[in-house]
Structure formats: structure tokens, C-alpha cells
Amino acid sequence: LGWLADRALGTTPWLFAIGALAGFAAGLYLVWLRAQRMDAREQAVRDGDGG
Predict the structure, then answer these.
(1) Between the N and C ends of the chain, which has fewer C-beta atoms within 10 Å?
(2) Confidence band, pLDDT 50/70/90 cuts, at residue 9
């Protein structure tokens, strides 16, 4: 999408680069979020809350 937008607007490579960085940041956030959820479940099991 960023590549197509860059071609249409003549902004090469800015929209592509911004999109790539945003996608990378979103991926890192989702990995962090999943790790937090897994840690919370493990803590609940350790505390005897059943998870």
C-alpha cells in the first residue's frame, strides 16, 4: 500500500518507510502484549487461581 501511495503521490520512499516502521512497531507491540498475557496466566496458576 505504501509503495502504491508513493508512486501515486510522488513521495518515494517516505510512505513506504513509514508504513514499514509502523508495521514493525505494531508487531513488537503484539508480541509484548501476548507475553504479558502469558505471564499473567502463569502467575494465576502459580497463585492457585486456576488461570
Answers:
(1) N
(2) very high
